Amino acid sequence: MKKYLKVIILFITILLIHNIWMSKVESVPVMTEEPLYRAIQATGAEVESLTIHSYAVVTMKENEVENLDNAINYLAEHFELKKEEIVKEIIQNSKERSIKICGNVDGQNISITLKKLFAENIADKIHLSIKIEEDHPESYNLTYRKEKLLEIFRKFFVEPHITTCLEGYLDGKLRKGAADCCIRDALDSIGADMNSRVDGGNYISVTGYTSLIDDKIIAGNIPVNINMAIRYHTLDNRTYITIGSPLILVEY
Q1: Distance CA 135, CA 167 (A)
Q2: H or E segment and range at residue 217
Q3: Which Pfam family would be a valid example here (predicted)?
Q4: How many CA atoms lie within 13 A of 175 on its CB side?
Q5: Model confidence at 145, in pLDDT bands (50, 70, 90)?
Q6: Where along the chain do its domains lie?
Q7: Which of 228, 206, 225 is nearest to 216 (CA)?
């Protein structure tokens, strides 16, 4: 009888240990491989939006410069923007000629601008900028969107400047100590070193560098490719966390 009792107790003990171990495994958050997404995930923030800015000066044939409509239509087709849903804005004056289109596809707001500045003596140079905005993005979207942008710029034989920003939020207002923890957790999650910090009352902004991100800028001989800001908004009682690379180019 005692033998059977020991077996039952051993079985229950093993079952309890297994359940405890499984619960711990299930409670560990799944971290993405994309550095920016991983950093904002480490703060516990709810990811709300993604913004990608891209820019380059491209070379076009003289006839293409004179008729930017063809080029803008080609770009719209690349992003699968429906012609009937595109909003177009044209500016023509003594300083510039530009065409801007905006549209939406698969939940992305896409704006494309082609601009010729007449003050520039180089006739075939055109400023091309593309911005993609998306609400509640998945982590894989960051890499995919950037690859899509690189693909289009490389058709013009240039490498663009790309800036990526993620914004998320935490409910309520963080104490200063909690905000410091968020910054530390975000930077530690991607092996980033902080190299500057600004405390502005109701916001904190820091810059840093991580080897996990290839792009960088040099500021005062210091490499920078991560920028993080934490700001509390009283109107909706939320603390917004913005993380950008190499810098934040959205309002916070």
Answers
A1: 10
A2: strand 217-219
A3: DUF1779
A4: 2
A5: confident
A6: 35-49+166-245, 54-160
A7: 225
